[in-house]
Amino acid sequence: MSFRVFVDRVNEAPELELERDDSSLIDQIPFNGFFGDDFLTLIYLSPPDAPIFHDAMRETLHVLADEKESNHRRAQAAVQVGRFVKHNAPAAPAQLGRSESLAWFELAQQLGSIVGVWELANEMLKQCDLKVSIDLNTNPLPELRARKDNARFRIDVRVAQAWYEGIRLTLTASQNNFEHWDLQAHQCAVGCIVNYLLLLPGEPPKSLRKYNGDEPLIVKRFKTLQWVAPFWDRLIESMSNDISDEVKQLLIEQKYIVSSYIPQLVQQCTETQPASFDDRNMPQANNQVQTNAVDQLVVIKGQIPTSSDRDDVLVLKQYASLQKPVRFKTFPVLEELLRMREQLFSEFPWAQDAIRVVMNDLIARRRHGVTRLGMAPVLLVGKPGTGKTRFAQRLSELLETPSSVLNLAGMCDTKVLKGVTRGWAGQRPSKIVEFIHQTQVPNPLFILDEIDKAHAGYSNGGDPQEALLDLLEPGNAKRYHDIYLMTECDLSHCLYITTANSLDTISEPLMSRLRPVHFPPPGEDHAPVLINGVVKDLEKMWNLPEGAVTLTDEQRAMLVGLSPREMRAAILDLLGNEQTHKVH
Question: What is the pLDDT of residues 375-402, one digit of tens each?
Answer without folding.
Answer: 999 999 999 988 999 999 999 999 999 9
